[in-house]
Amino acid sequence: MIKIFNHFVPRIVSLLFLSELLMLLASPYLAGAVRFAASDYRFVEAIPNFGASAIAFALILTFCMAAFGMYQMQSRESVHASLYRMFPAFGVGVPLVVLAFYLFPELFIGRGILSIAILFGFTCILFSRLLLLRYFKFHFLKKRILFLGDSELANECIDLTNANSFYERYDVVGFVPLLNNELTGHGAAVLPADQSLMDIAAKYSVHEIVISLKNWRGVNIPIQQLLECKVRGVAVTQIARFFEREANQIKISYLQPSWLVFGDGFNQGMVRALGKRLIDLLASLALLTVALPVMLITAVCIVLEDGGPVLYRQERVGKNGKTFMVLKFRSMRTDAEKSGNPQWAQVGDTRVTRVGRFIRKTRIDELPQILNVLRGEMSFVGPRPERPYFVKQLCEQVPFYDMRHSIKPGLTGFAQVRYQYGATVDDAIEKLQYDLYYVKNNSLFLDLLIIIDTVQVVLFAKGSR
Question: Most-buried pick from 44, 142, 307, 315 (CB within 10 A)?
């Protein structure tokens, strides 16, 4: 993993992104060389701002590939899945490139060069993806991990790399049991506890030792041996930190308050607040400009279906526990909660109208919340606001749940792009683990990644009910 502005990014994703960005950046130059191969025409010198044009070309297409999930490595990728994303990514990206050159004529590089550049860029990326998925295993990127302590927690981490990625991020050397913390059965080797950790690390070429313990009390932890390993170049990591890095989650089940208190993150300075507010305003105004026709059509469709109110106001919990009225397009019948008790939406919920079913699936029902963002009640990116009725229940049942209210709720959020719709306490726990990661590691860089991922979520109607 590579840490970029507090966010952990897989090394393979970073390499893939940079290599494909360079391919797209080189494509206009290669296209110009092919286009004028038979002449002495020096296109780079003759065409003004050619370098800026190449950068715009590469950035627009890379953004579209990211928006269509081509850099999401949470699932086992296949050639078919990669093509499924690549064709529409270029299908949207190419018109955007043409539009950019139309709006800024000084960037135009000629139809011939542009056409060849698109062909080169598409072919190079397609070929590199096919090679990546079929032949390369990236063994040089893998770490060799030794777990010290509890096998149940360690097994959860092992399952993480096998289930959530098309490539393996680390090899597990084995487990070393600790006194009063006996290991249970598992597939990996149990290494003798009477040997020095440094000897084991040297023998098995260990890169990192992960301490897999929920509670350190009553456990004889070999601090001196761990210190020896660390000063000799072997990383030593707590299980909570390991899971944060590899899964982009703060795992509640073995989270200690002291780890949050003395760890890094939770930066909420003035510069960060001003930058985030600026992004909120710019992103909201841009989205409002683009989505206004859709919002008007939606309002008409809601009125035509059942003549009820277009907007739905609902109390939600915001920053520091203060409540506010969130705005949504009404997607349910007017008597949806006639029983008087709030209810979570379920799969195939009969309370949802026909228009509501569509706007919920495409997230159009959330667009009026742009006004909440402009009023400062919400941010563009942050934990999704929940109703006070559910917040009270979840604060009683889920540890650390109230920490998500330390920042403004968002129109979109990290949990929304990484997890399905939540309708149970277990779902709330899973989403909270992503929300805590965002609260701890939030940055403008992470906000940008979430906004890009939101495009994919909307396009593929992920996680809606």
Answer: 142
For 235, residues 6+ apart whose C-beta sits below 8 A from its C-beta are 207, 208, 209
- Res 97 pLDDT > 80: yes
Sign of CA dihedral 438, 426, 77, 238: positive
Q: How far apart are alpha carbons 417 and 382 in whole angstroms?
A: 11
Going by DSSP bridges, is the β-strand pair 323-329/311-317 parallel, antiparallel, or unpaired?
Answer: antiparallel
Q: Please answer whether residues 87 and 64 qualify as being in contact, where contact means their C-beta atoms are separated by less than 8 angstroms.
A: no
Contact criterion met (CB below 8 Å) for 404 and 316:
no
Strand, helix or coil for residue 217 = coil
- What's the confidence (pLDDT) of residue 324? 95
> How far apart (Å, rounded) are the C-alpha atoms in residues 321 and 402?
8
Q: How many Å apart are CA 149 and CA 318, to the nearest integer?
A: 40
Read off the pTM: 0.83
Considering the chain, tell me which residue range(s) the CATH 3.40.50 domain(s) occupy.
Answer: 139-247
**Per-position DSSP letters for 83-133, written without gaps between them:** HHHHHHHHHHHHHHHHHHHHHSGGG---HHHHHHHHHHHHHHHHHHHHHHH
Q: Which residue has the tokens 């952990």?
A: 8
- Between CA 343 and CA 371, with CA 333 as vertex, the angle to 5 degrees is 80
CA atoms within 13 Å, Cβ hemisphere of 185: 0
How many CB atoms are located within 10 Å of the residue 76 CB? 13
Q: What is the mean pLDDT of residues 205-223?
A: 82
- Apex 432 CA angle, 426 and 437, nearest 5: 145
CATH code, 139-247: 3.40.50
**Residue 305 banded pLDDT, cuts 50, 70, 90:** confident
What whole-number distance in Å separates Cα of residue 75 and Cα of residue 82? Answer: 12
